[in-house]
Amino acid sequence: MPLGAAAKLRGPGFQPGPFPSRAQAWLPPGLRVGKPPCSRFPDSPWLLWSPSLPQATPADMFAKAFRVKSNTAIKGSDRRKLRADVTAVFPTLGTDQVSELVPGKEELNIVKLYAHRGDAVTVYVSGGNPILFELEKNLYPTVYTLWSYPDLLPTFTTWPLVLEKLVGGADLMLPGLVVPPAGLPQVQKGDLCAIALVGNRAPVAIGVAAMSTAEMLTSGLKGRGFSVLHTYQDHLWRSGDKSSPPSIAPLALDPPDLSEEKGSVQADSTVQGDMRRLTLEGEEQEEGEVQQRCGEKSLSEATEDPSVGGLNPDPTDSKTLQEQMDELLQRCFLRALKYRVKKADLPLLTSTLLGSHMFSCCPEGRQLDIKKSSYKKLSKFLQHMQQEQIIQVQELSKGVESVVAVDWKHPRITSFVIPEPSPTSQTIQEGSREQPYHPPDIKSLYCVPASMTLLFQESGHKKGSILEGSEVRTIVINYAKKNDLVDADNKNLVKLDPILCDCILEKGEQHTVMKLPWDSLLNRCLEKLQPAYQVTFPGQEPIVKKGKICPIDISLAQRASNKKVTVVRNLEAYGLDPCSVATILQQRCQASTTVTPAPGTKDILQVQIQGNQIHHLGRLLLEEYRLPRKHIQGLEKAPKPGKKK
Predict the structure, then answer these.
(1) What crossing angle do the helices spanning 321-339 and 378-387 adopt, rounded to 10°?
(2) Which of 258, 268, 329, 392 is the most exposed, fewest CB within 10 Å of its CB?
(3) Angstrom distance (rounded) from CA 566 to CA 570
């Protein structure tokens, strides 16, 4: 039952009270009534069994249909109160983020409903999606909200097999947890947590921790772990647009500080060893499939892992990851000033300096991420460079900084040289370097339909034959000459015989049109033929398909938080990997990207980039990938110069 359109996405959080009436209801896969509740995950030695495990009862209050009491637009005072509540509940959110979550003017609805068990629930709906719900004066996020803010809550991971049980209204038992190499998130009993699946950080459920992390460890990961409140695919989710979870790559977290955990984990060292066994081959296989599909690790993984990101080519280097990122940042900055930025480019927007110059100066095999450096922000780094008198930065317009002067005679610029890569790292890079992308050769073809077989059968073609445009013209011209249809008085006209009349004329024209000019005759023939096309990728056999090739579709969409996102579809038809394109755009636009199945399709993926990034996307497709403009639609939606995106 839809909750109605509303205004904005909202984030929640809090420590709800216990739910004593909730039974431990997570049933392992394969559990049947009348059989002992035990099962085993594939390739895992852990037996999911509890001697006191009761039969499943609906833990998720939205596991069954609810009844809507009222649906009204939010008042200004309630909107301000909601913004204050979100700020209090989520202190990690900045002012701008809270403003995005709870906007000042966009439509936002308050829906009051009764859950199937009689609980009175208030739901906040924005853009047609439920974004928050309130129960007993506590705010909770929905999965729609957490997909936009996946790090809003501490996230625990479980197996995909478990999702079906959670959707059915079961709680999550501890044997179903997957323990990452960095360990479980640190939570206390009663903390609100998100639950995600192996290989994807997008949460699929929201629950309350039934015990603290330390208690989970000391219990040997046995017992009930989380009381589930809301899941993907439950009735609250169905009241929205029913979109699927986006694909968000798991974070490569640093291992926990052993000195901090010594007090809590050392008490039972065998538990920690058992926790590692939970990941086993199931997690490795699933993560392998995700990485194989995307072709490469995400930006966050590349920057966290020295061996992948190339930040530490020398294993004996004692520098920390932050120190290496500082060094890489300064190297890209100096290289950009010395070899790319010209005096005529000044004043230069600081964002342009980073996106168009510094990123392109990053050595191959490395990823530049300012957030991983000690500076954290570009403005702070440029202030440091200004203090060294390398550049001068001014705020030429409100809130927009530009580089207005560069001292190209500064010793740090004059002495900078591009370091030669070590033979080892160079060999690794050459071995792992992907082949450069070459656009396919796309040729328009024509298919003979049943209604035109008489015209083409004399030339040896039948229904379904594929022809090029030049072949069609030759066949039609030869047919006219062979049947003496060229007008004797005017060679530019062709007399229409019964076959031509049936093939190219409309019903109302067959008794009125007796002759046609050559151009009109040929154009009508091409219009009556069915479209087809041939795609030839370098080094591969041509692929012929009927119909018209779908262009790369670029569109702007407005999500529940009223933020604009750029959506790109049909990249696969042109030999482009959506995951690779998403990774490149994430780096160049400095914006979050996700890859999800395109709505209404099974095998087509779409890339979603935060903000209006059509300008960057157009430059990538036209200039670097050299795709013809006629095969790209939506480029005209790029932000106009001098206007807000």
Answers:
(1) 70
(2) 258
(3) 14
Closest among 261, 264, 227, 231 to 245, alpha carbons compared: 231
Residue 615, token pair as written in the block: 């300008």
> Given the structure tokens 């005679």, which residue do they identify?
409
Query: How far is it, in rounded angstroms, from Cα 547 to Cα 545?
Result: 7
Strands 138-141 and 129-135: antiparallel
Query: Is the pTM for the entire model greater than 0.85?
Result: no
User: Which residue pairs from 453-457 have beta carbons closer than 8 angstroms and sit at least 24 positions apart in sequence?
Assistant: 454/499, 454/502, 454/503, 455/479, 455/499, 455/500, 455/503, 455/525
The whole-chain average pLDDT of the chain stands at: 76
Query: Is the Cβ–Cβ distance between 614 and 639 less than 8 Å?
Result: yes
User: What pLDDT, on the 0 to 100 scale, is given for residue 18?
Assistant: 41
Return the ∠ at Cα 212 (arms to 211 and 218), rounded to 5°. 90
- Within 10 Å of residue 254's Cβ, how many Cβ atoms? 10
Which residue is it, tokens 């955990």?
Answer: 261
Residue in 143, 185, 145 with CA at minimum distance from that of residue 167: 143
DSSP-assigned beta bridge partners for residue 106 = none
Give strand pairing partners of 67: 114
Of 93-97, 356-360, 367-371, 384-388, minimum mean pLDDT range: 93-97
- Tell me which of 122 and 117 has the higher pLDDT: 122
Beta-ladder partners of 442:
535
Q: Of 29-33, 128-132, 252-256, where does the model show the most confidence?
A: 128-132
Average pLDDT of 553-582?
86
Rounded CA-CA distance 247/254 in Å is 22
Distance, in Å, from the CA atom of 461 to the CA atom of 467, rounded to the nearest integer, reads 9
Using the predicted structure, report yes or no on whether residue 58 has a pLDDT greater than 50. no
What is the Cα gyration radius of the chain?
Answer: 31
Determine the Cα–Cα distance for residues 245 and 298; give it in Å rounded to an integer: 17
- pLDDT at res. 252: 55
Is the preceding omega at residue 347 within 30 degrees of 0, hence cis?
yes
Alpha-carbon distances, residue 630 vs 551, 633, 634 (angstroms): 8, 7, 11
Q: Environment class of residue 195 by beta-carbon count within 10 Å: exposed (0-12), middle (13-18) or buried (19+)?
A: buried
Confidence of residue 248 (pLDDT cuts 50, 70, 90): confident
Query: Residue 441 in 3-state DSSP?
Result: strand
Nearest to 362 by CA among 397, 327, 395: 327
pLDDT tens-digit map of 516-549: 999 999 999 999 999 999 988 887 888 888 898 8
Place 369 in a pLDDT band, splitting at 50, 70 and 90.
Answer: confident
The residues pairing with 123 across neighbouring beta strands, listed in sequence order, are 111, 133
- Would you mind telling me the total number of residues written for the chain in this entry? 645
Please name the amino acid found at residue 277.
Answer: R
CB atoms within 10 A of CB 52: 7
Q: Residue 47: is its pLDDT beyond 70?
A: no
DSSP state letters, 59-110? -STTSS--EEEEEEEPPHHHHHHHHHHHHHH-TTS-HHHHHHHS-SSS--EE
Is residue 397 within a helix (H) or strand (E), and if so which, with residue range?
strand 391-397
